Amino acid sequence: MKLKQKIVIPLLLSSVPVHELGHWLFARYFGAGVVMIWFNFVVVDETVFSTLQYIIFKLGGFLITFVPALIFTIPLKDTPYCRYPVLWLIASPGLAAHDFYDIGLMISGQFLARSLSFLAYALTGVGCLVTFWRDIHEPK
Fold first, then answer.
1. What is the C-alpha separation between 13 and 29, in angstroms, rounded?
2. What is the C-alpha end-to-end distance of the chain, expressed in Å?
3. Measured between alpha carbons, how far is 80 from 59 in angstroms, rounded to an integer?
4. Domains of the chain: which residue ranges?
5. Four-point Cα dihedral 93, 126, 68, 30, nearest 10
6. Which residues contact 87 (CB under 8 A, 6 or more apart)?
7. What's the CA gap between 47 and 58, in Å, rounded?
8. d(CA 128, CA 126)
9. pTM above 0.85, yes or no
10. Could you tell me where the DSSP H helices lie in the chain?
11. How far apart are CA 49 and CA 72, in angstroms?
């Protein structure tokens, strides 16, 4: 197995629990009781949240993956290691699509919920296509 594969696979697999860690951190910050923690979801008592706290709680998973990836991408942009944080940048919206759906549903209704969710998946899909296209057509 190449070094690139040894790094990429664990990096992508770790993005899901890190995303859920963001929800857990914001739930603890707002004083919500954590009912259950699993690999791909965290169940909390959402009845203690105000509307703004609920939105911040739902954005927690996105923010904990997107912001550090953005911070690490900037200093690494001219190195071959730039691709690794970019993977989290690309995966972040897709991981948070259901959270964006919940936020849209709470704010406005089905149309906004579905639009935000579709936009999140579209951003992840386009990011993947651009990344793979660059890898294929990059001079060796």
1. 26
2. 19
3. 30
4. 3-135
5. -10
6. 8, 11, 12, 15, 69, 131
7. 14
8. 5
9. no
10. 3-29, 51-76, 83-95, 97-107, 110-137
11. 32
Q: Which residues pair with 56 in a beta bridge?
A: none
How far does Cα 25 stand from its chain's mean position?
Answer: 15
- Paired with 42 in beta bridges are 37
State which amino acid sits at residue 48: V
Give dist(CA 94, CA 120) in Å, integer. 5
pLDDT per residue of the chain (140 residues) written in tens, 0 to 9: 565 667 777 877 888 889 999 999 999 999 998 888 877 788 888 888 999 999 999 999 999 999 998 898 888 877 877 778 888 888 899 999 999 999 999 888 899 999 999 999 999 999 888 877 877 777 66
2: left (phi over 0), alpha (psi -120 to 50) or beta: beta
